[in-house]
Design goal:
The complex is a heterodimer. Chain A is mainly alpha-helical. Chain A has a two-stranded parallel ribbon. By secondary structure, chain B is an alpha+beta fold. Chain B has two domains: about 90 residues, Nitrile hydratase, beta subunit (Cyclin A, domain 1, Orthogonal Bundle); about 80 residues, SH3 type barrels, CATH 2.30.30.50. Chain B contains eight helices and five strands; from the N terminus they run ααααααββαβαββ. A five-stranded antiparallel sheet of chain B has the order 4-3-2-1-5. In chain B, helix 1 runs parallel beside helix 4. The mean pLDDT of chain B is about 95. Classes of the chains: A mainly alpha, B alpha+beta. At the A-B interface, helix 1, helix 2, helix 3, helix 4 and helix 9 of A face helix 1, helix 3, helix 4, helix 5 and helix 6 of B. Strand 3 of chain A pairs parallel with strand 4 of chain B.
Chain lengths: ~240, ~220
């Protein structure tokens, strides 16, 4: 990134009275601090005040709010998707149904509901690599992956995934061979996409549970491959 | 609208920043803002398309400066004000106006699992005939509405091929403005990366974009 741009952004943000956009490059450890702790200090108070107003007016129920936070923090997440994928790896009939009708096939695991009403599963092979993005907002398959990470919702990912997917993947540490076909899926409608990653070699003797433990959120979004167990976490 | 939210293909946004072991929420207020949005939505005073449009109305410089859940907070406040559920004065004070009526929340803790499991689908059973079939070549329309649309700028006026017919769905361009659901077919349309970005793209790469019937014309 050029110095000019960096300076421009820094001064623009200072002028705006707030630090923290996701556009500056800095070491991983400090990144989250800039993005999340440097928000205007009154935001926490503002949300508190809004909540108490809505509770007082009888528009929301506080225990329902607590239950919702608990749901999204503890009950949905990429472990759900990993179970579906691991099952597809060991059961070819399930896999064909998953590719033909993901919504109902995933529902067999009991996963459905918000942002999981209409799911399409796309399969990675040695010659095809799929990548999921939402350029317009942050559409993501909540029912199987939970809420999206910050990078997925950020301007760099949303702007670049469609125009230079290979460059984006390289930043995630994934270098694709030239002859691999990249398919980017832009979630512009109410369909939510999930990648069925390739099953890595050396996993023939693993149980479904052990397989599920290898499958990461990033692999199901398409920004990574599933690492072979003997590779020590490196694909 | 041709807003800052329509980011596909823009340059200058910098490198991807990932965080190891990222928490679901980075601060308690993020979680509270998120679930306030969900809980108030249970009143059905607005729909998901109106919610998206309200975020798009945030001025570009603010949009880029704000964190994700800050936008969600701003959006909720604006929708509450627009629908007349709360007043500016109440937002400012964080207290209900004296003598204002007290409602009964539709969403209680015991229903949270139910709500989670029975989200409102956007598909419709309406018997609408598809205008295009799988494998057909299509042209995307070149439209620039000031209202809500889900046809991204980078995919306007382009040539593609219908890859999947997803069935019938609510049309966001009218639904966001409470002008009716106008149910119609949604297709996954495949565009060669070179059709969208020219010679710089790899010849075999492609982008699949979900498109409503109204966005397409026969090629």
């Amino acid at each position: 990134m050029s110095t000019t741009r960096r300076d421009f952004l820094t001064s623009a943000m200072t002028a705006a009275g707030a630090a923290a956009t996701s556009t500056l490059s800095h070491p991983e450890d400090s990144e989250h601090h800039r993005e999340h702790q440097a928000v205007p200090s009154d935001l926490s108070l503002r949300v508190k005040s809004l909540e108490s107003l809505l509770v007082e007016k009888g528009l929301v129920d506080r225990s329902a709010l607590d239950a919702l936070v608990d749901t999204y923090e503890h009950k949905v997440g990429p472990r759900n998707g990993a179970k579906v994928i691991a099952h597809a790896w060991v059961d070819p009939a399930y896999k064909s149904r998953l590719l033909a009708d993901a919504t109902n096939t995933i529902a067999e695991f009991g996963y459905g509901g918000k942002q999981g009403e209409h799911i399409v599963v796309v399969e990675n092979t040695a010659k095809v690599h799929n990548l999921i993005v939402c350029t317009l907002c942050s559409c993501y398959p909540w029912s199987v992956l939970g809420l999206p990470p910050v990078w997925y919702k950020s301007a760099p990912y949303r702007s670049r995934a469609v125009i230079e997917p290979r460059g984006v993947l390289r930043e995630f540490g994934l270098e694709l061979a030239e002859d691999v076909e990249v398919r980017v899926w832009d979630s512009t409608a109410e369909l939510r996409y999930l990648v069925l990653p390739e099953r890595p070699s050396g996993t023939e003797n693993l149980s479904e549970e052990q397989l599920a433990a290898l499958i990461t959120r990033d692999a199901m979004v398409g920004v990574a491959k599933v690492a072979s167990p003997e590779m020590g976490g490196k694909p | 609208m041709n807003g800052i939210h329509d980011m596909g293909g823009m340059h200058g946004m910098g490198p991807i920043q990932f965080e190891k072991d990222e928490p679901v929420f980075h601060a308690p207020w993020e979680g509270r803002s998120f679930v306030l949005n969900l809980a108030v939505a249970a009143w059905n005073k607005w729909n998901i398309d109106a919610r998206r449009y309200q975020i798009e109305l945030i001025p570009p410089a603010d949009y880029l400066r704000m964190s994700y859940y800050e936008r969600w907070t701003e959006r909720l406040v604006q929708l509450l004000l627009k629908s007349g559920v709360v007043t500016k004065e109440e937002i400012k004070n964080g207290r209900a106006a004296p003598g204002s009526p007290k409602a009964t929340p539709p969403l209680t803790a015991d229903k949270v699992h139910g709500v989670f499991g029975s989200a409102g689908p956007a598909s419709r059973a309406a018997p609408v005939t598809p205008r295009f079939k799988v494998g057909q070549r299509v042209h995307t329309r070149n439209i620039n509405p000031t209202g809500h649309t889900r046809l991204p700028r980078y995919a306007r006026g382009k040539l593609g091929t219908v890859y999947l017919d997803h069935g019938v769905y609510v049309f966001p361009d009218t639904n966001a403005h409470f002008l009716g659901e106008k149910p119609q077919h949604v297709y996954s349309v495949r565009f060669a990366a070179r059709e969208l970005w020219g010679e710089q793209a790899a010849p075999q790469d492609s982008v699949y974009v979900d498109m409503w019937d109204d966005y397409l014309e026969p090629a």
